[in-house]
From TrEMBL:
PROSITE patterns: LIPASE_GDXG_SER (PS01174)
Organism: Spheniscus mendiculus
Protein name per Swiss-Prot or TrEMBL: Arylacetamide deacetylase
Gene3D superfamilies reported in the protein's UniProt record: alpha/beta hydrolase
Residue span, Alpha/beta hydrolase fold-3 domain: 109-256, 311-373
Keyword Protein transport: no
Residues annotated as the enzyme's active site: S191, D340, H370
Length: 400
C-alpha cells in the first residue's frame, strides 16, 4: 500500500509539473524552454495566491506582493549612477543620477512600474536594472515611482500619486536642482505603469499650473481601457480571468464588478457612446482580427457604474481621450507584444494617435509576451527582453 501511495503521489506530482510546464509554445519564441519555465512559474504563483486567498489566509494580491518582495534590492549606487530612495510630494521614488560630468543640462525620464496597480515596486530587481541602464546609457536623471497600490488603495489614488510626482518634478526649481533640461523630459511605464504614463501625459495638457511640456511618452505594452474586455487579444489569452480580476481590483474588491467585467457586461447603456473609442473592428489592422467577429456590447447595470465610475474615467482608460486632446500629445513610443492580452490596447492607441497627427513609433514584437522586459536579470534572462530594452533605450536616445 505504501509503495502504491508513493507511486500515486509521484504520478500526481509529475502530472502537476507537466500541467505547468508543457504548454503549447509558439515557434516564434527563440528560447522556448525558458518561456515554458517562466509561464509555469507565473501560473504557479497566481494559483498559489488564489489557494491562499480561498483559504482565507491572505488576500490574493497580498500573497503575490509577498512573492515580488523576494525580488527587492536596496538602492545601490555604482561607478556610473548614484541611486537613492526619497520622496517627491510625499510619494516614494527611486532616483537615479548619472555620475559623469555633463556639458549641459540632462535629459530625464519619469518611470511608472507595472503590476496591475496591485503589485510591484521601483526596487524590484528588473525595474532597478531597467531604470539604472536608462540613466547610465542616456546620462539621464530617472525618477522611478512607488505609487500606492491596490487592494489597500483604489483608483484614483495610483493615478494621483503618479500625477503628483510628475507635477512636482516639472517645477522649474526641481528641474534646475537636478540639472534637467525642461525641453527633454519623457514619461514612461510598462503595463499598468504604461496606463499611468498615458493618463499623466493627457492630464498635463489640461493643467494650467504646469508650464513645462513633455517631449515624449513611452508606453510599454500598456493597459489602456477596461470597457471592452473581449478584444481579440483577450479572447486569445488563457489568463483573461486574472487580468479582468486586476482591472476590477483597481476599482473595488466587490465581486459584483468583477463578475460583470468577466462576462463583459459592465458598461451601462447611457455610456454606449464610449464604445466608439474602443471599437476594435475599426481600430485594429486586419491581421489581428483573424476570424474574430465584432459583436455589439451587452450593457450592464447603471448602479454598478454609479458606484464604481472609475472604469469609465479617461484617467483609468486613456483610450477615451478626445481627438482634441490626442492632437496635443508629445511624440510617442508604443511597444506591443504578439502574445499579450493587452496587445490590442496598444495597437488601438497607436492608430488613434497617428490619425490625430502625433508622431508615433510603434514597435510590435512578434516573438514576445507580456512582461518580457522583466526578464533582463536574475535566474532566467531572455535575449528578446534585452533586445526590446535596447530598442526602447535607443528610441529614447534618438528622440529625447
Amino acid at each position: 500500500v505504501d509503495m502504491g501511495a508513493k507511486l500515486l503521489c509521484l504520478f500526481l506530482a509529475s502530472a502537476l509539473v507537466a500541467y505547468y510546464v508543457y504548454i503549447p509554445i509558439s515557434e516564434d519564441f527563440a528560447e522556448p524552454w525558458k518561456v515554458m519555465l517562466i509561464t509555469a512559474a507565473c501560473r504557479a504563483a497566481t494559483h498559489l495566491a488564489e489557494v491562499v486567498h480561498q483559504l482565507g489566509l491572505m488576500h490574493h494580491v497580498e500573497a503575490l506582493m509577498l512573492i515580488t518582495t523576494f525580488e527587492y534590492i536596496a538602492p545601490t549606487s555604482d561607478e556610473n549612477v548614484t541611486v537613492m530612495d526619497t520622496e517627491f510630494n510625499n510619494v516614494g521614488v527611486r532616483l537615479f543620477l548619472p555620475r559623469k560630468l555633463s556639458d549641459g543640462l540632462r535629459r530625464a525620464v519619469v518611470y511608472f512600474h507595472g503590476g496591475g496597480w496591485c503589485i510591484g515596486q521601483a526596487g524590484m530587481k528588473p525595474y532597478d536594472c531597467l531604470t539604472r541602464w536608462t540613466s547610465n546609457r542616456l546620462s539621464a536623471v530617472v525618477v522611478s515611482v512607488n505609487y500606492r497600490l491596490a487592494s489597500k488603495y483604489r483608483f484614483p489614488v495610483q493615478f494621483e500619486d503618479a500625477y503628483s510626482v510628475m507635477k512636482f518634478f516639472l517645477q522649474s526649481s526641481v528641474l534646475s536642482q537636478y540639472g534637467v533640461d525642461p525641453d527633454r523630459i519623457c514619461v514612461a511605464g510598462d503595463s499598468a505603469g504604461g496606463n499611468l504614463a498615458a493618463a499623466v501625459a493627457q492630464q498635463l495638457l489640461e493643467d494650467s499650473e504646469v508650464e513645462t511640456k513633455l517631449k515624449a511618452q513611452a508606453l510599454l505594452y500598456p493597459a489602456l481601457q477596461s470597457l471592452d474586455l473581449n478584444l481579440p487579444s483577450y479572447q486569445e489569452n488563457e489568463n483573461r480571468f486574472y487580468v479582468v480580476r486586476l482591472w476590477s481590483e483597481y476599482f473595488t474588491s466587490a465581486s459584483s464588478l468583477r463578475e460583470a467585467m468577466a462576462s463583459n457586461r459592465h458598461v451601462p447603456v447611457e455610456s454606449r457612446h464610449l464604445f466608439q473609442f474602443v471599437n476594435w473592428s475599426n481600430l485594429l489592422p486586419e491581421e489581428l482580427k483573424k476570424d474574430h467577429v465584432y459583436t455589439s456590447p451587452t450593457y450592464g447595470s447603471s448602479e454598478l457604474a454609479k458606484k464604481y465610475p472609475g472604469f469609465l474615467d479617461p484617467r483609468a482608460a486613456p483610450l477615451l481621450a478626445s481627438d482634441a486632446q490626442l492632437r496635443r500629445l508629445p511624440l510617442t513610443y508604443i511597444l506591443t507584444c504578439e502574445y499579450d492580452i493587452l496587445r490590442d490596447d496598444g495597437f488601438m492607441y497607436a492608430r488613434c494617435l497617428q490619425v490625430a497627427g502625433v508622431p508615433v513609433t510603434h514597435d510590435h514584437a512578434k516573438d514576445a509576451f507580456h512582461g518580457v522586459m522583466l526578464f533582463i536579470s536574475g535566474p532566467i534572462e531572455l535575449a528578446v527582453g534585452h533586445h526590446l530594452v535596447n530598442r526602447y533605450i535607443k528610441w529614447l536616445n534618438e528622440n529625447l
